[in-house]
Amino acid sequence: MGDRPARWTEATVYPDMWADPDRDPRNSEGVSPDGELPTLKQYLTDYRLTILMKCEGLTPDQLARRSVPPSTMSLLGLIRHLAEVERDWRNWLSTDAPLPTLYGRRDADFDGAAADEAVVDEARTDLAREQELTDAALALHSDLGQRVGRDGIAIRELMVHRVHRVEEYARHCGNADLLRECIDGRVGQ
Predict the structure, then answer these.
(1) Residues 81-135: pLDDT tens digits?
(2) In this structure, are residues 64 and 114 in contact, taking their beta carbons and an 8 Å threshold?
(3) Where are the beta strands (DSSP E) in the chain?
(4) Which fold has domain 58-184?
(5) What is the mean pLDDT of the chain?
(6) Are 9 and 183 in contact (CB under 8 A)?
(7) For the chain, which residues make up each domain, given as ranges?
(8) Burial state string for 110-132 with b = 16 or more CB within 10 A and e = fewer than 16
(9) pLDDT at position 163, please?
(10) What is the dihedral of CA 84, 141, 133, 61, to 10 degrees?
(11) Are the CB atoms for 108 and 140 separated by under 8 Å?
């Protein structure tokens, strides 16, 4: 077991935190958001930041490392997968023909997560672009009860559960915790 990384964190205040509270971009002083939609948006923002934080400071080799063989899951694969998922959420909003996938066939988001700086840069660019486009599309629907798309899904359901916007990021933040700890031992919230 000599290959097992020692557990560590950058936080000095609490040993189970990723970063000290005063340096954590997810921490905000003051009151929590008012209303259901602002609360959902804040949770989503925090989960998005968590995924990016879990990938900070890693090389392309580390980002592409598949920590639990034979699984194809890696941190880079998660970034690519979330870009793909953001795009697919826009399909749920629309009655138009579905947008094409970013990476091709099923599971190509994970399978194509190669240890290459160009692949890493492309994945980060894809994720930022797809998040921005999905946010803009959802901004047109401030009524959480509004039903949209071919299936008449409520915006609330799209944001929280059925197609998992907040739930998807939350689950993958947990995956990212385990993947990062396997790479270099870094732990935390």
Answers:
(1) 999 999 998 999 999 999 999 998 877 888 899 999 999 999 999 999 999 999 9
(2) yes
(3) 147-148, 153-154
(4) Four Helix Bundle (Hemerythrin (Met), subunit A) (1.20.120)
(5) 87
(6) no
(7) 58-184
(8) bebbeeeeebbebbbebbeebbe
(9) 52
(10) -40
(11) no
